[in-house]
Design brief:
By secondary structure, the chain is of the alpha/beta class. The chain contains ten helices and 15 strands. The two termini are 31 Å apart. This is DeoR family transcriptional regulator.
């Protein structure tokens, strides 16, 4: 088994449990203990796991990420949204992911999709993103092609913004785009906290054949600082916490609302 395949297999083992031991890797992947330890060290350097004595845990970079990435009270809802979004993405698609916790959840689901890990002479998925944490998260998946925009890094969100980011996005064509937001109002549409992020999010959505706002129900009715001007808000993936009245108001304005079913833990 080649090293990229081993790294994928180790991440798959972590996806099944919160921890893995060197002995588990030795037995299941038929490698030496030294090889298993080197692979774990490599993944730890990529911040895809945390090394422990004798193995590793998937409880990884939450302490290094902005506060909104840790202790997320809506995590279960965002996982459900992520699975619903993943179900829309066929093998071979070109997708855009902005930053944010829900987009990061989508990346996590895609990273464990077995059909995307099957050997292929061409990318099984192409991801265009302005979020460096998402690019890092998917970097060890050899079948997934990653394109990162340029730009100025926002330390609050790990997103690249500014004219370099927009210049790159103007040169790509996406099949799907998934855009996270800080607020979502039926009247003024999606909003975020930063005007630079809003501009990149809007352009990402406009470059896609199909664009989806991904927002848990706690964001509905909230208005943040910056609107996504130029983007016609047509699709929303949210959780079953949305009220009947809220859904009807979105649909009356032409928005297709997709309810993500809960995901078993």
């Amino acid at each position: 088994m080649k090293r990229p395949e081993r790294l994928n297999a180790i991440l798959d083992l972590l996806a099944e449990s919160t921890q893995v031991e060197v002995e588990d890797i030795v037995n299941k992947l038929e490698v030496s203990p030294a090889t298993a330890r080197r692979d774990l060290d490599h993944l730890a350097a990529q911040r895809l796991l945390t090394r422990t004595r004798g193995g590793a845990t998937s409880e990884t970079v939450a302490y290094d990420l902005p506060k909104r990435y840790s202790k997320d009270q809506q995590a279960a809802k965002k996982r459900a949204i992520a699975h619903a979004a993943s179900g829309l993405i066929p093998r071979g698609a070109v997708i855009g992911l902005c930053g944010g916790t829900t987009s990061t959840a989508i990346a996590s689901v895609l990273a464990t999709r077995r059909d995307l890990m099957e050997p292929s002479n061409k990318p099984t998925l192409t991801v265009v993103t302005n979020a460096i944490n998402i690019a890092s998260q998917l970097a060890v998946r050899p079948n997934i092609k990653i394109m990162v925009t340029g730009g100025i890094l926002s330390p609050r969100s790990y997103e690249l913004v500014g004219p370099y980011a927009t210049s790159i996005l103007q040169q790509v064509a996406l099949d799907f785009a998934f855009v996270g937001v800080n607020g979502l109002d039926p009247e003024i549409g999606p909003t975020v906290n930063d005007e630079g992020e809003a501009a990149v999010n809007s352009l990402l959505a406009r470059r896609a054949g199909q664009a989806y706002i991904v927002a848990d129900s706690s964001k509905i009715g909230v208005r943040s600082f910056a609107t996504m001007s130029g983007y016609t808000f047509g699709n929303l993936i949210t959780d079953d916490g949305i009220t009947v009245e809220q859904r009807q108001e979105f649909e009356a304005r032409g928005t297709n609302v997709i309810l993500a079913p809960p995901v078993e833990e």
